[in-house]
Write a structure and sequence with these properties.
Shape: globular
Distance between the termini: 25 Å
Radius of gyration: 20 Å
Strand order of the largest sheet: 5-4-3-6-7-8-9
Helix content: 25-40%
Number of helices: 8
Structural class: alpha/beta
Number of strands: 9
């Protein structure tokens, strides 16, 4: 798939260009992408519409691909929803998703390269550290409590809800069962054909997943397609898919294979 040749003067300018070209159609996606400055996540040329290498054979995807992914999943990234980002890398898309699902939502980013896991956490902490820290739980009205209960409330002042964002080091090809099921799943690298079945099993009824998949091609041997999976909202939980467009992503591999690549 060809790039859209956008080159922003700033983060807002980049997002405006993507919106003007109808790559982003949702106001919720525009708002989230404007809150998350790519300069915090891309080591160079953050406002160019092309992927940038972040080390260990990984990239931060091109802005238009992040826009497509968020736009395709927008109805499953509403406030209170839960999402999984496989191959979270720089942490950029995790942060965008977090602003869409809001304080009551959950976003899990899973990355199997420790150095990239650390990079994602570092990048999010630059301007969005609150996403990684749980909010204090609301205390009950102490006016109705006796002195003993007031003391107990004071003892629990440090109790916090779970943070919106949870970053995990692990093999994303297996998903992340402790927080499953998810309203939506995004995969940021090209998977082999058996991987989507494993991940789709961790979708809620009515859930969606976008994932680049490497498939056989009669002409070139293999090709990659950006594929949307949908799980039905009934007891059968039937999973169907459709191809959205051709793409070119780095491969979704095991940790050892990825580490053998150049940094």
């Amino acid at each position: 798939m060809a790039y859209y040749s956008s080159k922003g003067k700033s983060n807002d300018d980049l997002i405006d260009q993507l919106s003007n070209k109808d790559i982003i159609k949702s106001q919720a996606v525009i708002a989230a992408m404007k809150k998350v400055d790519r300069a915090d996540f891309s080591p160079s040329d953050p406002y160019d519409d092309c992927p940038q290498r972040i080390g260990y054979g990984a990239t931060i995807s091109a802005p238009h691909m992040h826009a497509h992914a968020l736009d395709e999943l927008k109805d499953k990234l509403k406030p209170g929803c839960s999402a999984l980002d496989v191959g979270s890398g720089s942490g950029y898309l995790v942060a965008c998703m977090a602003y869409m699902v809001g304080d009551k939502g959950t976003v899990v980013g899973i990355e199997h390269i420790k150095e990239l896991y650390d990079l994602g956490k570092k990048n999010i902490n630059k301007s969005h550290s609150h996403l990684l820290i749980g909010q204090k739980k609301k205390k009950k009205d102490s006016s109705k409590d006796n002195d003993d209960n007031k003391d107990k409330d004071n003892d629990n002042d440090n109790d916090c809800d779970d943070p919106v964002v949870t970053l995990v080091k692990g093999d994303g090809r297996k998903g992340y069962l402790p927080k499953a099921p998810y309203d939506c799943i995004h995969v940021g690298a090209a998977a082999q054909p058996d991987v989507p079945d494993v991940l789709a099993a961790q979708l809620k009824k009515g859930g969606k997943m976008v994932i680049p998949v490497e498939i056989k091609d009669n002409y070139s041997g293999t090709k990659q397609v950006f594929r949307m999976y949908n799980k039905s909202n009934d007891e059968k939980e039937t999973v169907t898919w459709k191809d959205i467009m051709g793409v070119r992503y780095v491969p979704l591999t095991d940790e050892q294979s990825q580490r053998r690549g150049k940094k």
